[in-house]
Records
---
Amino acid sequence: MLLLRHNIVSHRKYVRLISQFKLPVSDCIPFIPPRKLHDPKACAIRNRGLVLGVYYNEHVAIDPAILTASGQKYDKEVSGKLWSMLKLTPIPKLGETRVFYDLDPKYAYVAVAGLGSECVTFNKIEQLDETKEAIRIAAAAGARALRGFHPKEIDVESFGNAEAAAEGANLAVWEFNKYRSHANQKVIPNPNLLLYDDCDEDGWKIGTLKAEAQNLARHLQEMPANILNPTKFAKIAVDILCELDINVEVKTKGWAAGREMGGFVSVGKSSVQPPLLVELSYYGADEYTRPIIMIGKGVTFDSGSLDLQSPKDLRYMKGDMAGAACVLAIIRAAARLKLPVNIRGILPMCELMPNGRSPKFGDLIYNANDKSILIRMPSREGRLLIADSLVYARNYWPKFIIDIGTMSKELLHYLGGAACACYTNSDELFRYIELASAHTGDRVWRMPLWKFYEDRVNNCETADVANTGLERYGDSANCAAFLKQFASDSQWMHLDTYNVGYTLGTDFPYLARGMTGRPTRTVIELLHQMIASSKL
Ligand code: ZN
């Protein structure tokens, strides 16, 4: 019999030893992880943390700091120890935290997160509900501060809005660790987040589902392009959506060619990875209710083709399927929230590579709209896919159409990462999404859909329309003007998300460096707002 000592032989070595000596597992004394030898009660305490809040109004001379109601209640339970210790430190401002240990037998550590001033509210100039944003930031700061202790469970107070607290905490603790081994020191299992001292379980659940949707979009964006090709994306869609009764249809290049999707076929044939059009249908209302159409650009790697992108930009091009990732996540969230709407997602998935079959400068293509299209720039491929999808979407007599995609790099210069660009032919749709984005903190900014830009893309030597203008600047608006011609008379909104797809982790305290999954929560909130106003 092979004897193994718990304290010196790791589980990995134990498995290796078994195979080395070719012993049946039953002949070995099983390895018991050291933590199981400890008192389970003590373990539970060590694995549990609590996040509370404190307001700090620097314009008030006397008593500028005050704990939240839940904070005060907890402070009473621990005989005022929390407040007396907090006073010894500089009071945390918005986004800062202080962590205290062993205040009571229930929690090993308590994080007090700063909420800033108690007096903030909806800020019209900022187009932002600053109360909710402060709650997201505080919940994120508290949960992230405790995450380093590897807790199994973190209780988070609502700070007055359970939904926003759940969003902030769930977005902040998420990490992309799929491809790290378990032995890797950087892997910290995600803690279980629970609502503390508040009965708004529904709000907490909605916030959690919205954040999980955004985290799903982030996950898909982060996946390496050699793994997440169109076929893998379709498989993931089948795996995670079919169990929620969402119908997933996967259509091939031949099917697309039969429907004269000239742009999709032209871009798709540039790669050895077969292009696929993934179509998702969620029925939350009766089958006769007109659907909302959501189109997502799904380029799993955008090399720029013959107009090859710079090495600096190519690093982020695995995320050029952000639109498709967002739409998939939105539809999954709609099903989990049981929203009473019908949604059809159209996701043209392909890879754009430079090779002998790549679209070339000056190529001419057609789509089912019977317009001839000049490919003035092969690297402006996303708009070709969306144009085909817009024409196809008309078959479903949609209530309205939203398309989402990373289209134009120059948005980084206009807006930074503050808001994605919104182009729409419907004032009503814009009012709803503007309001929704003020609530989520993931804002949109309306851009011009003027004839000025339409004239640019229609100024074309050999075709009816070109995929970009001759002018170098204004490409995001040129793209919208191009797409408008394929949306016809449908109520339509185009979200150009190039500038919000990736963050260095400095703009939003609840989003760490990496892919962002934006604007998933805003579109889910848009559906909520429209349902609440009986517009859907
Ligand atoms: Zn692209």
---
Amino acid sequence: MTRCLIISNRLPMNYDQQKKSFIPSAGGLVSAIMGLDAEKVGQEFHWLGLMTDDVDSSQIEKMKETKFDDITCHPIVVPKQAYDSYYNKYCNNVIWPLFHYERNLVYYSPSGWKNYVLINKLIAKSIADYAQNSDNIWIHDFHLMLVPGMLKELRPELKIGFFLHIPFPSSEIFRELPQREEILRSLNQCDLVGFHDLSYLNHFKSSMSRIIGEDGNDNRDRKWGVYPISIDTPRFKRIAQDQRTKEKLMEYLKHKGNGQWILGVDRLDYIKGLILKLRAFKDFLKKNPDQVGLVQLIQVVIPSRTDVQEYQNLKDKIEQLVSSINGEFGTPTYMPVQYLYHGVNNFELAALYQASDVLFISSRRDGMNLVSLEYVVSQIEDFEGSILLSEFAGAHSTLSYAISINPWDIENTSAKIKEALLSPQEVRTSRMKPMMKFLEQYTSSDWARIYLRDLTIEYLPKEESQILKKENFFEWIQHFSDKKILFFCDLDGTLLPIAGHPSQVSISMETLMLLEEISHNDKFSFVIVSGRDKEFLQKYFLDNDLHLSFGACHGAYAYDDRIGVWQDLINSDNLKWKELVEEILKLYTIRTPGSFIEDKGHALTWHYRSSPANFAEFLAHKLFNELEENLQSFPVKVVRGKKIIEVKSVQANKGAFVAHWLNNLTPENKPDIIVALGDDTTDEDMFHALQEQKEFVTYCIKVGQSPTVAKYFVHDQTTVTPLLKNIVEQMM
Ligand code: GDG
């Protein structure tokens, strides 16, 4: 079975220094992962999480390779002081409040960030040491957002997934984060980033586009997705039917008498909206005196972060409000709010779920909220309750038959409490049944299975495609020995890294030296085939005395180093389209600050990399449609690239260019082998043309992992120069 390494801040068991024993870790993430059925998901799970170095080494050893429900645990030991700073000063004082829209509770501290970087680095290093090449890496939650980038650098061949369990906030909030860029750049290294809700994905996309200029084109649809978490439905059903639950239920029902119970189960946290819930309940009692004495709110609050002042203040506020409601509406035989400040065991929880008529979730923001899902599947025949569910919880999309509330609207929420309590049984049943059915079919194991399928799905033709890694370059190029090689190589994103602006492109000393070596060796011909115009290529390479050949403007113009002049390969009779396109592009350029038009001869390109991202993206979309509609009768193609829209003559095509090049080779220039490299869709034309011809041995290499017809691929642009260098050295 394939191994899946789950990485999270916590392991399922936590060593309690005071109690000197392991106790189960609380919280939604652990609940969800513990619910995975390895067999159903089809992966063997190993769980890597943190332990601090103040814990007795014998306890750490004990934890190592311990199995919990078929999951092997592997602690990553980190310095206690650095851990506390990372966890309290960055995770909980910055990310948690900011991502939950509580900006006034954010406290920045430089040491918090420094230790966040340090702990993430230690984790990345431990994964790199532990992981086997075929492992799938699944990193969880906001504590570890730098790990993907750091790990990709150490082990580029690993499949790396990330899942965020909390909301991703609007880009208007996210962009306040001083370290926004570092975090986005790291997440951008993932093979798949998953969210609970579409709104979080949309916020993430717009942050990506505004802050680091990732525009959602290319293969982003594969890299970012929505995977609402679920629960271990069979387990909750089993607990619901357990004798111990039944006994507790009988006890609770006796106390409940002929009244009604509203239930709340929340960790002590400002995101859960406990104050708003109590206010709405108070308003309900005030407006419905006939219900006083009959309806009770049973509020379980699970202690959390008890050492933090903010949480102590919240606890005080909750307790004040509880006692003011009880003082105002209580009688010697009736307590409106039953407040429990401690956890309950699984059977008590299931019995509470069954005994209550209404579950009340009032979160101000909540990634998902598992309690609401658990309530649904714990219902047994004739005990079907109602759910009041905040529209600010991710579960709102999954539980579409719940009664929706805006917890900030106290009066309306109070009216909804009444509606929920008074709903006739058949209405409750008709609401509960579809949600129950959904959760029977979609469990936490399905969540993991679907996510991991998307993480590992291979888009390349499986049997035929082969990854070229730095460690096996040497072996691979053995069959090139003493051969004449012709290279066709794309420029931006292949030979050179993509630059912020086309004019800022820079070439490394290593690549420059390599090109020099190639251009002075008769065994090689090197043709750069690029979307760039003639002038750029001339200035950048030829004027620097590099003897290379070129296909400019996607191959519309050719420059053969042995001839030394530029040739126009396209019949220029019909350039009427250019006038029309220029007219349209000008209209978009004058209203989009920072955008400009580039005339490449057989192509016109509208660049908007330096324009306000969202606005430019919106106009680019419109422009693309307008051009496609207007140019149907012209021999042109409209292309959307990275921050560009381009209209080019259909003949300006890298496939046509290489075919032309091969047709014009003299016998003494004929190569033994052709190697072609490229990273984007225009390079696919080149790969197609080369694989169709039968005269030469060809090796087409895709840079990156988007769909391709090439038989080989390398992970990213940084691998290209080392690969070429290996080939050249082999020939020396
Ligand atoms: C984060 C996100 C997202 C709670 N009290 C008791 C108890 N629990 C269990 C519940 C549930 C879990 O803890 C709480 O999960 P939530 O989803 O409600 O909340 P968070 O801990 O904030 O989790 C959240 C989640 O990650 C998963 O992605 O849904 O939005 O904030 O399973 O049952 N269990 C028992 N006794 C208790 O007293 N037995």
